[in-house]
Design goal:
This protein is α/β, with parallel strands linked by helices. The chain is 56% helix and 11% strand. The longest helix is centred in the middle third of the chain and has 25 residues. It is globular.
Length: 597
């Protein structure tokens, strides 16, 4: 809601309460809300706090305050009371001033950061170098990138960061499989992206490993015995030990295969439209973590067991004992996260750290927060685990080892192809050049994907259905993009006809126009709320509501055909402001909007 209007009404109600009941009430403590759709009004004030002082029923108090507002506040046209709720109808002419303010404000709804703004670091993506990015990573990347954009729009300085899991037994599995059965294949020879090629070898390792386990079980071993005794697993563990010992041959193979994967990741990130300001690598942070854990051991924050392993006792904090270094001295994920934190704190004066990681890691981040605080990181206790739900397909969960994941590159290609097919069937590509068709279908396909994944409350598990996401009607990205393109078309035709936006100060907007101005006025508070609650879905659903409100107005009233020039100017100004806010809102989601469609 427009801040100026909120201030006017809050101050007026404060004066009314003082005059009617002798109660001193700070205007900032009175927070009018948008009136619910089923009632008449623009703003609603709750009057229950003053019922006791008034010695009257809530509805009587609401009626008295309402009568005072109509008599004393020029912006109030009328009021109505529903029990203890006072619904306020704003004078129609007031809304033209609100629209002028919106139109005159560059980057409306956005608060630019300053040199003194808090520095927030957002970690997202966190891929493994043994497989390509999949649908789960897509949701992670889109949430992290969008959250970064929203936090920046709320006036924070933001550093977007990634931690690449480039070491460990899972990496060695792919390396060993390539060594055994790769026959010197490269991405160029295979005609494949490097991350896909390495992912194939990860799946192949699992297949061969399962065969060995089965053979050993057929010889009488238990499943656990067979898994530990399988030659492939023994070789993979040996390769990991050699990697940690910096064996030149193993390290050279690791560097070569990782370079293939990074080139593949970069292509995927670019098409997805996400980026990072700083990338960290587990291979560079895990030793820093070990050092920090040993420092904690010396200070008595951790303790060592008889077998040499190092632990933290968190029972006083309501948790359990947490392993930080194994008996052979190798580190665990927690150790790596402590090391990464150390390097980040060295590189940046972080005020807040946000980890975008799935909800299966909730316990991990409870522990990490406590350990970082005990180890002296100022932001440790206040770290935020942006815990989001899993993405499933209509047919169920995905499994990387079995090769049943939805690959990110394949998914993007499918979405763009579907966008092309649906757009062509609806005639939305008629008369466009081949280059325009390519650009628009890329925007629509990826817009559909991003919007579908971001419109859901991030904390919830969700099912992704590609067919539902590309629909030019309903709560979808293409519906929002098409409305934007429609508005841009109206504005182009207006310019071609020599129509400009003149003075509309004295126009009394109709009900649909007021609803649209009010929805536009809600944008800044929506951005702030999305930043405070870490929820891109608030922006997504705001954009949908705005587009719905515009389409209701557009359906009922002509713009270019309006004969009254001030009324036409109002409608052109409304259209221009709506297009601008749509572009800003979708930009916060990482979604592009086409100028024509």
């Amino acid at each position: 809601m427009n801040n100026e209007l909120i201030s006017i009404i809050s101050l007026a109600v404060s004066r009314a309460v003082k005059e009617l009941y002798g109660v001193d009430c700070a205007p900032e403590s009175i927070v009018p809300q948008s009136t619910r759709k089923e009632f008449e009004g623009n703003l609603t004030v709750v009057v229950f706090p003053w019922v006791k002082a008034a010695h009257k029923a809530p509805e009587a108090v609401a009626n008295e305050i309402g009568a005072w507002l109509v008599a004393n506040e020029p912006s109030v046209k009328s009021t109505n009371a529903v029990k203890g709720f006072l619904n306020i109808v704003i004078e129609p002419s007031f809304w033209c001033g609100v629209l002028k303010h919106i139109a005159a404000t560059p980057d409306y709804g956005i608060t630019a950061p300053t040199a003194d703004s808090p520095l927030v670091m957002v970690e997202y993506s966190s891929p493994n170098t043994n497989k390509p990015l999949h649908l789960g990573h897509v949701r992670n990347n889109l949430l992290g990138y969008s959250l970064s954009r929203i936090l920046e729009a709320c006036g924070n300085r933001v550093v977007k960061t990634n931690i690449v899991n480039d070491r460990g037994i899972h990496i060695c599995k792919s390396m060993l499989a390539w060594q055994k059965w790769g026959d010197g294949i490269t991405p160029e020879k295979a005609g494949k992206k490097g991350d896909h090629l390495i992912g194939d070898f990860y799946v192949l390792f699992d297949k061969k490993y399962k065969e060995e386990v089965k053979q050993l079980m057929d010889k009488g071993m238990s499943e656990d015995e067979a898994k530990n005794a399988a030659p492939l697993m023994l070789e993979a563990r040996d390769m990991l030990r050699r990697w940690e010992a910096k064996d030149p041959e193993v390290r050279a193979l690791w560097e070569m295969m990782n370079s293939w994967v990074y080139a593949g990741f970069d292509e995927t990130y670019k098409r997805l439209g996400v980026d990072f300001d700083k990338i960290y690598y587990e291979s560079e942070t895990y030793l820093e973590g070990k050092e920090k854990v040993l420092e904690g051991l010396e200070k008595g924050i951790m303790y060592r067991k008889d077998d040499g392993s190092v632990w933290a006792d968190l029972t006083a904090d309501g948790l359990d004992h947490k392993l930080l270094l194994r008996s052979d001295g190798t580190s665990v994920y927690m150790t790596q996260d402590i090391g990464t934190a150390k390097l980040r704190y060295r590189d940046f004066p972080i005020d807040k750290m946000i980890y975008v990681v799935g909800n299966e890691q909730n316990y991990h981040f409870q522990v990490l927060s406590l350990l970082l605080d005990k180890l002296g990181f100022e932001w440790g206790k206040g770290l935020v685990h942006f815990s989001y739900g899993m993405v499933e397909l209509p047919e169920g969960k995905m499994k990387s080892r079995e090769g049943t994941v939805v690959d990110a590159d394949d998914l993007m290609e499918e979405m763009v192809g579907t966008a092309r097919q649906v757009s062509a069937e609806l005639g939305k590509l008629d008369g466009l050049s081949a280059e325009e068709v390519d650009n628009i279908t890329e925007m629509v396909g990826l817009g559909a994907l991003k919007y579908f994944l971001l419109k859901v409350d991030p904390r919830k598990n969700m099912t992704f259905n590609p067919k539902e996401s590309i629909d030019f009607n309903g709560n979808t990205g293409p519906f929002i993009q098409y409305t934007y393109a429609r508005i841009r078309s109206v504005l182009r035709r207006a310019a071609e006809a020599g129509m400009s936006i003149g003075d509309y100060s004295h126009v009394e907007p109709n009900e649909k126009e007021i609803a649209l101005i009010q929805k536009l006025a809600d944008f800044p508070s929506t951005v702030k709320e999305a930043g405070a609650s870490f929820s891109p879905s608030l922006i997504a659903n705001y954009a949908y509501d705005l587009v719905k409100t515009f389409n209701q107005f557009y359906h009922d009233y002509t713009i270019l055909g309006e004969a009254d020039e001030p009324t036409r100017s109002l409608r052109l100004a409304l259209s221009q402001a709506t297009a601008s806010v749509i572009a800003t809102a979708t930009g916060l989601l990482g979604i592009s909007v086409p100028e024509r469609m």
